[in-house]
Amino acid sequence: LGLDHVAFVEVRLNDTREAALAAFNAAVARIGEIEQAHLIAGNFDYLMKIRTRSMTEYRAVLAEKISTLPHVANTSTYVAMQAVKEDGSLGPLDNVT
Question: Please, what are the domains in the chain?
Fold first, then answer.
């Protein structure tokens, strides 16, 4: 697919009431470049994994799609340099019953 550029984005919302979260979640579900999105307890509200072809494409996704999501106050981006483990297995825990 050529989607080798991976970025993790912290998203802080300006409203975290249930209606705002529902609107944000529904909008996130429509963005194909967002591979994962998690509601987080901490200094920000969501952590998202974004997969694109290049930094140029990522910047467009950030500016045109992520930054315009409902209730987004600000974002911080971390670009992955190398995937060390990405197979989804839990290692020795896979065999625990």
Answer: 5-82 (3.30.70.920)
